[in-house]
C-alpha cells in the first residue's frame, strides 16, 4: 500500500553521532519503503548556510538523503526554527523539494496542513518577534554574507540563548495556542494538521462546527526515543523506530 512518512525535530549535530547513526538506519529502512518522506523542520540543530554542506558531518547526511531520493522515495523538507537557512544547494544535492510553512496537501484523499509548528505558538510573543526577523530575506542575506566561522559562532550562541530563554517560560507558553489552532482549522476548511516543534508527541481530536479534525504532533528524536508518523488511505499512526 502506498504511504508517506513524517518526521521532525532530530536536531542533528556533530555532538549527536549515535542519533545520526539511527537516522541513517531509518533512511535505509522504513524511508525506502515509503512513497514520500516529509521532514517538517529541525533536521539539524543548526544550519549556517549551504556553503557548509561539505563539512564532514553534514556531507554524510546529505549523501544519505541523496541515496534515498535516488532509490525512488520523494523527499520534502520544511524549514524549522533551527535550520531555516537550508537553501537551494541543499535541495539540489539531496534531491529534496523545499516546501513552504505551512503547506496544504491532499494526503490520500484527506486535506492536510503541514507546518513546523512554531508559528502556532503565538502566546510566546518574544519568540514570534524573533521568528519574524530571522525569516526575512534581508536578515538572511546579511548573515550569509558573514564568514562561515562567524556564522558557526553565532549558531552556538543562539542555541545557548534559546536554552536559557526556555528556563523562564512555562510549557503552556511554549506550546501551540488553542485559539491559533482553531483559526487555522476553520480558515482551511477543517483539515488534518501535522506538525512538530513542541516535542510533545500526541494525537489531538477536535469537534468543530459539526466537523471532526485531528492534529498530529510529531515526536522529537533523542538517544532514548525516535519515531515517525505513517499515513496512508486508512489514516495515520505513530510508529516508534527502535
CATH architecture: 4-Layer Sandwich
User: What order do the strands of the largest sheet run in, or round the barrel if closed?
Assistant: 4-3-2-1-10-11
- The percent range for helix content is 25-40%
In the CATH scheme, what's the topology name?
Answer: Purple Acid Phosphatase, chain A, domain 2
Given helix and strand content, the structural type is alpha/beta
- Put simply, the count of helices is 8
Structural domain count: 1
Straight-line distance between termini? 23 Å
The helix/strand series, from N terminus to C terminus, equals EHEHEHEEEHHHHHEEEEE
Protein architecture, described:
- This protein is α/β, with parallel strands linked by helices and 242 residues long.
- It has a single domain, classed as Purple Acid Phosphatase, chain A, domain 2 (4-Layer Sandwich), CATH 3.60.21.
- Helix content is 36%, strand content 24%.
- It has a 6-stranded mixed beta sheet, with helices on one face.
- Strand 1, helix 1 (17-28) and strand 2 form a beta-alpha-beta unit.
- It is globular and about 55 Å long.
- It starts with a strand and ends with a strand.
- The model has no long low-confidence stretch (mean pLDDT 96).
Amino acid at each position: 500500500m502506498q504511504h508517506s512518512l513524517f518526521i521532525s525535530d532530530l536536531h542533528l549535530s556533530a555532538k549527536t553521532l549515535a542519533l545520526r547513526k539511527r537516522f541513517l538506519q531509518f533512511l535505509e529502512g522504513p524511508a525506502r519503503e515509503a512513497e514520500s518522506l516529509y521532514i517538517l523542520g529541525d533536521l539539524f540543530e543548526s544550519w549556517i548556510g549551504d556553503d557548509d554542506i561539505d563539512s564532514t558531518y553534514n556531507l554524510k547526511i546529505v549523501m544519505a538523503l541523496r541515496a534515498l531520493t535516488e532509490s525512488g522515495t520523494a523527499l520534502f523538507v520544511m524549514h524549522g526554527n533551527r535550520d531555516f537557512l537550508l537553501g537551494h544547494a541543499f535541495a539540489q544535492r539531496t534531491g529534496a523539494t523545499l516546501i513552504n510553512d505551512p503547506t496544504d496537501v491532499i494526503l490520500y484523499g484527506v486535506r492536510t496542513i503541514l507546518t513546523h509548528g512554531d508559528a502556532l505558538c503565538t502566546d510566546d510573543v518574544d519568540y514570534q518577534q524573533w521568528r519574524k526577523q530571522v525569516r526575512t530575506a534581508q536578515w538572511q542575506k546579511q548573515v550569509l554574507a558573514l564568514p562561515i566561522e562567524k556564522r558557526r559562532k553565532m549558531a552556538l550562541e543562539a542555541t545557548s540563548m534559546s536554552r536559557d530563554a526556555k528556563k523562564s517560560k512555562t510549557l503552556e507558553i511554549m506550546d501551540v495556542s488553542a485559539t491559533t489552532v482553531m483559526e487555522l482549522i476553520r480558515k482551511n476548511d477543517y483539515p488534518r494538521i501535522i506538525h512538530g516543534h513542541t516535542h510533545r508527541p500526541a494525537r489531538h481530536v477536535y469537534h468543530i462546527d459539526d466537523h471532526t479534525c485531528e492534529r498530529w504532533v510529531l515526536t522529537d528524536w533523542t538517544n532514548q526515543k525516535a519515531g515517525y508518523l505513517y499515513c496512508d488511505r486508512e489514516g495515520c499512526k505513530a510508529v516508534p523506530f527502535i
